[in-house]
Amino acid sequence: MGGVEAGCFRLSLSATADSTTTDPGNTFARSRVLVTGATGMVGSALVKDLLASGAYVVALVLDADPQSELYRSGDIEQVSVVSGALEDIATLERALRLHDIDTVFHLGAQTIVGAAHHAPLYTFEANIRGTYNLLEACRRHRDVVQRVVVASSDKAYGEQSLPYTESAPLLGRHPYEVSKSCADMLAQCYHHTYRLPVTIARCGNIFGAGDLNWSRIVPGTIRDFLHGRRPIIRSDGKFLRDYLYVKDVVAAYKLLADAVHRDDVAGQAFNFSDESPATVLEIVADLQRLMGCEHLEPDIRNQARGEIPNQCVAAGRAREVLGWRPIYDRDRALVETIDWYSAHFGLGARAVAGV
Q1: Which ranges of the chain have pLDDT less than 70?
Q2: 117: domain range?
Q3: Is 119 part of any domain?
Q4: pTM of the prediction?
């Protein structure tokens, strides 16, 4: 997508990963892995990582999306594709049995809060029915399936005291929250009732390369700044959230898969966060600084509906039980993300002063 004249550009930022951070290691070289939601931002990143680890990867794909990073990167040519919907259990069973799947990462879902508010039935079908179909298919094929990771969300907690800990009840009230609360509890049910080797990840807002949902604050703001436009803020800008880089999320999912047979992990949920929540306006300010766009003030619409104002999670259990912590600090993660979008719009890596 060349020929775009940018309004401002980012300044390169060097950063070094913490060498003491836990690396889940390469235990996937001989694994046969099914990834649902493989065309999404996190799914595409997970597929790329698994391929680099030498895994045999099967992607469940509902619709071929040439804009997805799974397709744009060419990774789609290196995976086996099963076409179908989570709502069709026969498709899921076919994927598991035909490919002798031993590891499942369940990321497939309707992920947009606003869409859930306007189309609750579709969201419930994909997120709730899709999850119990996937878990039931895994139960029926326990001779093959050895580990399952279900991607839940901080939205499963609903609105209650902060920060959320894993001992807090799941109190979703609006459609998206309820769909995640239900999917989360279904995963726990299948472990405690049928001893399915499943564990659950609860993350806040995930950002990174490949997210083309422009209603989300990070990709939407970066796109606007690259085009010299004021970013639109749907809320009042004061909503508080965790922001976690997609590469740290991928590492967390793999770490959970590695540990799922442990008694203190199987059937349990884990929060993942850098424990540095930020408001929407603080994230916009970070991007203004990194991209040299301080002159482009946000357009605050205050029109958000069906969203919890403040959410953040405590990640103490993940640190203590799994030895996990994020590798990327926020500036480094945002700069890598800016670089990807700059290349996506054909702008290359150009820099101005601004940090």
Answers
A1: 1-25, 306, 349-355
A2: 32-209+243-277+311-328
A3: yes
A4: 0.90
